[in-house]
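Quarterly update, task 2.4: 9Z3-bound model.
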Amino acid sequence: MLSDIPSETPPENLAALAEDHYFAANPPPKDLAKHVALAREFINHHSAAGRRLVLVTSGGTTVPLEKQTVRFIDNFSAGTRGATSAEYFLEAGYAVLFLHATDCFLDFLREGPNGSVVARDEDAAKMLHVLRKYRDARDRNMLLLLPFVSISDYLHELRSVAQLMRPLGPRGLLYLAAAVSDFFVPPDRMSEHKIQSTNAVEAFKKGGNTAPPPANEEETFDNFDSSPAVPRSKSLVIDLDPVPKFLKNLVEGWSPQGMIVSFKLETDPAILVHKARYSLDRYQHHLVIGNLFAELQLTVALKIHPEVFVSPGSPDRWIRVPFRNSGGESSAPADTEKDEPVDPKSLPDGEPEV
Ligand code: 9Z3
């Protein structure tokens, strides 16, 4: 147990112990070995060709509440940033390892006739464009897709791929756009079966669902019906542990020569730059890109992302990133650079000023 570790343990040993503990306690995804074999081949191939390679992580990590998972907590991410960035990296000649959440495409689908699934009309052109680019990149062996679902799947995959990228040195870029959960339910506290919302099963296990509830529950007027035969609703209290901060392990151990870009998502503009700078100082990697939730929501209206680039030894740089339009025509990213925060309300309606 981590709580048994003596308090004088140096921080680097603590990070290693937290890593060992986490990866031993949380089982790997069932396809990890297969993914590692594919990633190894892909990385070796591009390394031999002297090509630059990027690992793009994308989408939200889920936090299962049950081992046989019916319910889970999710992090906000549609996977747009990761997918769009992967496209730009491919255009720039990078080989792309795309570690992505599995459900990113669901928003773009609708039910078709006879139980079929088709792209929504408004997204069809964009999806066709993406599909063609995807097939082309895959056929040229420039793109490898690795899916994940839960936070522990993601961390196992990230660690394995980052370690495989070590021989690439600074030709390997890790671009961490996935929305990574900060909290999780450790397996030893996770219910095997679906968490029940009433006491019906307890009553049933005690010998039949007609048994009266215990005396203290009898006083609880519930479901607008005080009859003891009616199952009582239960509130759900979830006790989550913090996910260890593995960016330190990534920077220092898994891929110490790699170029590492992380993202910081906040909702409070007052703390964004501070949190981004703190992350950079703490983990000593190469770039933190800060973005604000409200402004991501405004993206559709403004077709622009204002965000801040925080890197070592440089002043903070606010940039406006035009949103790629749905026909897929590319406009260069980071067209406008400013050293001041961008007030989204000050931006013109319609096309970005680039
Ligand atoms: C981001 O901030 C991404 O830009 C978004 C992109 C998830 C907001 P969408 O997928 O959204 O286009 O809808 N990612 C957050 C990365 C993150 O969770 N970072 C962690 C942290 O800041 C660990 S590196 O602590």
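Highlight for this quarter: The mean pLDDT is 83.
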